[in-house]
TrEMBL record:
It catalyses: [(1->4)-alpha-D-glucosyl](n) + ADP-alpha-D-glucose = [(1->4)-alpha-D-glucosyl](n+1) + ADP + H(+). Its EC number is 2.4.1.21. It is an enzyme of class 2 (transferase). It comes from the Bacteria. It comes from Rurimicrobium arvi. Pfam families: Glyco_transf_5. InterPro entries: Starch_synth_cat_dom. This is starch synthase. Keywords: Glycosyltransferase, Transferase. Gene3D superfamilies: Glycogen Phosphorylase B (3.40.50.2000). Residues 8-235 form the Starch synthase catalytic domain.
Length: 275
């Protein structure tokens, strides 16, 4: 029986150039994905199909063979539509998680009056669960999952609880990008309940998320990830004070050189997929 020696990296992000950019890390991720592919590592990207992403311009189309997954959030079923596009100037695919209730609107996180969407918590849980269910459907075991952006901060927790017995994630490490706060509001007070997607998750596991702030999400993602990368030049003191390197966790400070050259991040990917 042949042994599968392929190295695989999955990037789960709520921003990626050229589709959507909230920070300069969107471009860094673009170049990192391309360079990783060129280094001979299989790469796939998963992100939300926000309504502001132009399907015609970016040549998105539905992946019918992957459709038919229903994502259950707090006992309600939401159909998952999976769309795909090829990253421009690269031979790698970006998969977009779509659902009419959550992503059809032509806005990202705020309405026309600049009010934070009440269902952003639900959208986040839907996206994180959708990403992992899609990987299961692929049957594509990633060595590394790089979670970027506050919308992905539940993924490291889910992998260590609800999905810990899934063979496809049996050898997966997680890397989380911590960023400066991108919103000042709190997620809805139903967030913790809706994040309990499995009996494998206990309320105490979500204790770090309980404040429902952007900072709380970042601290939660960082707690459950194996490696943390600081994704902004200036990070809030609460993040830098609480997210420290240890024997079980590696933490990298932001390097401005990444904007022009992602070699050190690629080396990190290589080390994490080799170990």
């Amino acid at each position: 029986m042949s042994v599968d020696t392929k190295k695989r990296v999955l990037i789960v992000a709520n921003e990626l150039s050229p589709y959507l950019e909230f920070s300069e890390f969107a471009q860094i991720l673009n170049q990192l994905a391309i360079k990783t592919f060129e280094a001979g590592i299989e790469v796939r990207v998963i992100m939300p199909r926000f309504g502001v992403i132009n399907e015609r311009r970016h040549k998105l189309h539905e992946v019918v063979r992957l459709s038919g997954i229903n994502i259950i959030i707090d006992k309600d079923d939401y159909p998952l539509i999976i769309k795909v596009a090829s990253l421009p100037n690269a031979r790698l695919q970006v998969y977009f998680m779509d659902n009419d209730d959550y992503f059809k609107r032509k806005l990202v996180f705020r309405d026309e009056n600049d009010e934070f969407f009440e269902d952003n918590a639900d959208r986040m849980v839907f996206f994180c669960k959708s990403a992992l269910e899609t990987v299961k459907k692929f049957g594509w075991p990633p060595n590394l999952i790089h979670c970027h952006g506050w919308m992905t901060s539940l993924v490291p927790l889910f992998l260590k609880t609800a999905y810990k017995k899934e063979p496809v994630f049996g050898f997966t490490k997680t890397l989380y990008t911590a960023q400066a706060d991108q919103f000042k509001e709190k997620l809805s007070d139903q967030f913790v309940r809706k994040a309990l997607i499995s009996n494998e998750i206990k309320e105490k596991d979500l204790e770090i998320f309980k404040d429902r702030t952007n900072t709380a999400l970042t601290l939660g993602g960082a707690k459950y990830a194996d490696v943390v990368v600081m994704g902004d030049r200036k990070m809030p003191a609460k993040i830098t004070d609480e997210v420290k390197p240890s024997r079980s966790k590696k933490v990298l400070a932001f390097d401005p050189a990444w904007v022009e050259d992602v070699t050190s991040l690629l080396d990190l990917y290589k080390s994490l997929t080799d170990s």
